[in-house]
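Hi again,

Forgot to attach this to my earlier email, sorry! This is the prediction with adenosine monophosphate bound. I've pasted everything inline since the attachment limit keeps bouncing my files.
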Amino acid sequence: MKLILFNTLSRSEEEFVPLKEGRAALYTCGPTVYNFAHIGNFRAYIFEDILRRTLKYFGFEVFQVMNLTDIDDKTIRDSMAAGMKLADYTRKYKDAFFEDIAKLRIEKAEAYPAATGHIPEMINMVRTLEAKGFAYKADDGSVYFPVAKFAEYGKLSRIDMEHQKAGARIKTDEYSKDNVADFALWKAWDEKDGDVFWDSPWGRGRPGWHIECSAMSMKYLGRTFDIHTGGIDNMFPHHEDEIAQSEAANGCKFVNYWLHCEHLLVNGQKMSKSLGNFHTLRDLMEKGFSGRQIRMLLAGTHYRKKLNFTLDLCEKAGKTLQGFDDFFRRLSHVQKRSAAGDDAAKIAKEATAKFAAGMASDLNVSEAMAAAHFLTREANKMLDSGSLGSDGAKRILDTFRDFDRIFAAFDVDQAIALEIPPEIMNLIERRQAARNNKDFASSDKLRGEIKALGWTVEDTPQGPRVVREN
Ligand code: AMP
Ligand code: ZN
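C-alpha cells for the complex follow:
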C-alpha cells in the first residue's frame, strides 16, 4: 500500500518515497525546556508519534531526531529569574518532558540532541555560510543571514518578501540588521545573558534558534533527509529559515517532505503559554484524567484539522475507551471454541484493510477509528446472536492489538486483566439476550440483580458497559 502524506512544501498529497529504501529519516522540532510543556505542544508530539508509528506499521525503519532547545531567550530569562545555572534549570524540564511523553505513550526518538551540546557544529555552519556570502556581522556584533540573497526564501511558507514592509511584524529572534527579515545566526552577548555565552569567531555569544535545527539535523540525518515536522506556527519563520541556512550552506535540497500539524485551541484561540490558556499534562492528571485518555483525545482528530480543547472532550475520550474495555472483556469471555456463522475472520480482515487505508491516506485517524467502530459493531452483533466462537473473538482482539501499534490506547490486555466476575458477566450476557428479544421486563430485572451485586450496567453504541459502584 502506498503511504500518502500531505507535503506543506508542494501543498499537495504525495506518495512517501524515502531516500534510502525502507528507511525513513525524521526530524521533529522539540521542546524549549524552560517550563512544563502544555498539551498544545503534546498535540504536535503525538502527531509525530502517530506519523512515526504509521511509518513503522507500513514497514519503514524509522530514525527520528528531536532537538531539545535548552538555550534561547526564554531559558536564559527564566533561569536567571530562578537564580539557577542554565543547565540546572533546564535539566528539570528535560526530565519532566521525558516523564510526560512516557505517560502519553509517545515512543522515544532515536536521538534527542540538546542545543548546548552542539555549539561547535552551529559555529561551523555559520562559518560556512559566511564563506559563501550568506552571513554578515551587524553593528550590534550579531551575525545575520541576508534573506534577500537566498532567491528561494519563502518557498515553504509562500510568504511574499517583496510585500513585507520594513517594520512589518515578522517574528524573528530580532536585533538590528540590514533587512527587517534577516534573522540572527549568532547573537552577540549582552548583560541580559549573564554567564551564558560561548566564544566564537564573532566574539562571545550564543546561537540563534534556527541554526540549532539546521546544524543538528545535518549531524544526525545528513544534508538531505526525508521528513521534517512541527506545529504550523513553526513553518514561518523557523522552518523557512532552516531551509535558507541549510540549502545556502550545503548547496542541496534540505528536506523532501514537510509536515505540519494544526493547533490545539481553547475557545478558538491557540493554546499557548503567552495567552495563559493552557493545561499541562500534570494539571489534567491531577483532575483525574489519564495519559491514555489525553492521548486518545489528541490523537483522535486529524493532524491538519484544528482541535478545540474542552474538559468535556477529555471525558468523552475516557468514555469511548471504557466502552472498548468492556467490549474487549466481553470478547474474552466467549467460551465455546467455534460457532456457526462466525464471520470474525472476514470482518477482521475488512476492518484491517479500512484501518490501513485510512492511515495510509495522510494519517486519516478518523477513517482508522471508523474501522475500529465498524469491527466493534459487527462483533457485538455476533456476540448478541451467539455466532462468535472464542477463536473468532481472539481474532478480533488481535486486530485491536494490531491497531494499537499506531494508536497505543486500546490496551486490550490491560482491559481483559481488569476482570469482571463471571457471575456478573453471566448476568450481563443474559440481560443482553433478553434485550435482543425485546423482553424488557426480564432485562430490567437482570439489571436489578446486577445492581444488587454492586455493579451498574449502561447501554452504549459499543455494547453494554458495566462499572463497579463505589
Ligand atoms: P515550542 O516549545 O514553543 O518550540 O513548541 C514545541 C512544539 O509545539 C512546536 O512544534 C510547536 O509548533 C508546537 N505547538 C505549540 N503550541 C501548539 C498548539 N497550541 N497546538 C499544536 N501545536 C503547538
Ligand atoms: Zn526546529
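The chain has three domains: 4-261, 281-417, 422-468. Residues 422-468 form one domain.

That should be everything now.

G.
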